[in-house]
Amino acid sequence: MNTLIFRTVAPLLTVVMLVFSVFVLLRGHNEPGGGFIGGLIAAAAIAIYGIASGPMAVRRAMRAPPLSFAGAGVLLAALAGLLSLPFDVPFLTGLWANIDIDDTKVAISTPMVFDIGVYFVVFGTISAIALGLEDEEGED
Amino acid sequence: MTVAACIVLPFVTAALLPLLHRLLGDYAGWIAALVAATGFVALLAVAPGIHGSESMAVAMPWVPSWGIELSFLIDGLSLTFALAISGIGALIFLYASRYLHGHHHQGRFLAFLMAFMGAMQGVVLADSLLALYLFWELTSVTSFLLIGFDHTRPAARRAAVQALVVTGLGGLALLAAGVVMHQLGGQWELSGVAGPLADSALYPLLVGLVLLAAFTKSAQVPFHFWLPNAMEAPTPVSAYLHSATMVQAGVYLVLRMTPHLGGEPLWNTTLMLFGGATLLWGAVAAIKQTDLKQLLAQTTLASLGLLMLLAGIGTELAITGAMLYFVAHALYKAGLFLVAGAIDHGAGTRDVTVLGGLRDPMTLTFIAALLGGAAMLGLPPLAGFFAKEEMYAALVSASWGDALALAVLVAGNGVLGAVALVVALKPFLGQLQPTPIAPHEAPPTMLAGPLLLGLTGAALAFAPDVLLGILVAPATAVILGEAAHAPYLSLNFLSPAFLLSLLTWAVAALVWHRFDALRVRLVEFDRRLGWSFDKGFDALYFGLVNLADQVTRLLHHGRLEFYLLVAFVGLGLAALVPLLVMGGMPGRWPEVDLTFYEWGVVLIALIGLLTVVAARTRLFAILALGVQGVAVATLFLLFGAPDLSFTQFMVEILSVVILALVMTRLNLEPTDKRPLEDWARDGAVALFAGSAVTMLLFAVLEGSLDPRLSDFFNAYSAPVAHGHNVVNVILVDFRGLDTLGEISVVMTAGIAVLALIRGARRLRSAPPAADKPAPRRRTRKGASA
Lengths: 140, 785
Description:
Chain A is mainly alpha-helical.
């Protein structure tokens, strides 16, 4: 499986998939996509990179333990919900703000932040499992 | 103001005490004593204003939305208890500052003790049933911490857990009782409960719950065993919690509830039976002891039983006797415990059989012991004497029941008197016996407590205005109602009560005379019996733990194939049983209308499926499963569910990758060899679950779908949640809380999977012996304490 072609293509493929996953994540509110599927694509990218270059290289590239991404994701999603606290509305109420950048309206919202949290949870958990299985030796 | 000084101040001080101890050393104990004294003075300041039903009430909002207030009430009854708690507390802190001198955790100890004092004041001052429950449980928790203070010894840990389990059980009963009372009266304030509740159908339940709480806290038979074990705590704790205050909380609860629950045969008889049994039990058990602290602990049991018995009799004389006895007992028992601590400190042992002749080296301790002993024996004119007179006078009648109760009281008081003689005289009279350390007098801070307590007890006898006017009369007025006017007895050498007192002293002298012989015989009897409530507790406690263990092993056997079997059979039954029972089985084959390329995708899925079953190697089966999954994902795409299909594609791809990794990394065999019977069983279950789900889907197709939900989400997704992708809007907005829960589960599952992978790796790298699951450690603490 570890052919030269695969090893050469895999990093490129990983980059493309990661960018694509962010694209899928951000368009999710109006088009097919979202945090869950985006997280799965990103995790698949990590798994491919791991098979090609070995889990150690992936861990170095990720800088933080994969599961900490998942933890940060849960935290981020919860914080997105807690933002409703100062506005005196129930937990997890969607809050929207429209920002104009060069005549383009960009909608920033707590559901989006929440979805980013979902993305990180799925991404972190699945990559942690995939990398954990790819590890030959027992450190992680 | 008073309430703040009694409850808030101790808790604040408790938080600061460890720091204060670091800064000031032993003097932190002085500050603690000062805090307790502040509460005492604050209570004394309001005492003259409290007569009969006159009381002070304070309330602050707690949970306003539910109408729950943190309300407190100072009336005659709570005043007496609160004065005892803060007054004795001040002396205990002074004593503890010296007793634990140089102990590494003295600051922590003082903090626990201070928090206990605040909680205990909360118990007696609380008016709201919820506040009462809260502080009641806090006393249990602080008692646990104090009993287990010397936590390196297994016996102390066991005693702490035992006390917590028993009193915690009572705490739950108290909470339930509070809820029942709230249901009956419509409010949480005890002072607002109108009149007796005996007419209610819930009355027996309420009595049962209140008495369970009181009996566990006040160590009545059959819950008595935790109290002697609690003597594992340092002596100041035994003197304070386990004689004068915390164990009296049950007595307090019974007296507090008497106006609402009392006067009925159920209440009175139960109290008299359990109180009488505890009195006799404690008296007999006291004779068996050689340790001074154990001797006193068993007599505390007896005294608690006596108080319950008096509360059960419930007449004016009996309640007056009970309040007098409570005051006298709190003073002398705390004092005698402190004497026991002083002897331990000065002579190095508490074994009463080896002590003797300490009157010269420990003269002041001897005086304190004599003062306490005289009060315990009930010599005139001390308060203990009049308490005895009142209770005897209450029972002098022609009825057989009263005569029986009288006999129990005389016997119990007689043995208590004998123990008083043993504790007050035996260590001090006779020849000076060799002791582990050269006997020397305790330092002044340790003598102040027992001496002051003894002198206070004696002084009260000559200050009836204080004893009766502040401590007893207002309390009895609360318990019995305004109209009650208990007659106070004066010294009368011809009354039947006095003759009974003479009889009591005769019993005391007799038992004292034969004390050692009786002890030998009783201990021998116990040894032959071979069973005790303490062992019974162990049997119950560890039996429960073992049962839980076995149930867990039964359900959590660790054999993956059985988990899967249960899961799939369950799935099949869950789909099929409702259809069969409720008659929704599909009647006909659903109509199929597919284009040729849709048929093609279905065909691919089928081929994938058959390949999974027929595949020779695992890897091939995994790939075939992926093919089948991708075909299903394509079907979703063709039928207009792009989101679902998209996700399905990724899940299928990742499943293949992860399954393949699992197979290779966990060194599974490349082929799946299983015996024919396993093959048949698994196949049957698969067919069963599969056809059940198919039936369910067919049934769904036959009915018409309810479009309300999809209509709602389609209509509101864009205008309300600013999103056109309904699936995503549901996930992150409409049902965001569900998603938050789900992602937490996903993360937790990830942690569990990683743990499994590491565990499997450790098993592989470890020597073969570790293949077996490590035997689970069962810590069984020594049964003897």
